[in-house]
């Protein structure tokens, strides 16, 4: 009777979504601690537990991966901001007054100071690197268009007259939030949370009135 050699168990191949999530998490840690220029894709891939090829096949390259990291951080804040913006446009909601919403936005903005730093580095690098500039332009344009469309849809659903340039409104909110976040991080004593809230309230009122 011959012994049958045991076959090794097949290696589980993780789904693409899992690979992307792992690489994105490792990239976020790396970009935050090392910055864009000093981040190595080889080291990043090893930290995520995959080959460098997994980074390229899922994100295309270092510029696209950096954009994905910044977009994920910014989108998380944007989702919270949009939820608060919805409250402003919801009639009959006491919690939807612009001062309450602005205070909530200010709270989110002043407690998460990491993504504005990433965004600022991305912007500075995009000014020098044509490849990064193309990625940055595509991402920011899409973000502005999405926010503008959502503002228009919510105003239309509530029967508000379409007297607001939604592209300009979206641009105003994006730039204001980014600038306030960076200023707050650099000099919190010069820009207290109450002033951040008042500034955001002024912008919101100009959009929803």
From TrEMBL:
Keyword Secreted included in the entry's annotation: no
Q: Which SUPFAM superfamilies does the protein's record reference?
A: Homeodomain-like, Tetracyclin repressor-like, C-terminal domain
What sections of the protein cross the membrane? none
GO molecular function ontology, one term from the record: transcription cis-regulatory region binding
Residues in HTH tetR-type domain copies: 17-77
| Classification via InterPro entries | Homeodomain-like_sf (IPR009057), HTH-type_TetR-like_transc_reg (IPR050109), HTH_TetR (IPR001647), Tet_transcr_reg_TetR-rel_C_sf (IPR036271)
Q: Which UniProt keywords apply?
A: DNA-binding
The record's DNA-binding region positions are 40-59
Task: List the PANTHER family hit by this protein, alphabetically.
Answer: HTH-TYPE TRANSCRIPTIONAL REGULATOR RUTR, TRANSCRIPTIONAL REGULATORY PROTEIN
Name the UniProt record assigns to this protein: AcrR family transcriptional regulator
Q: Which organism is it from?
A: Microlunatus kandeliicorticis
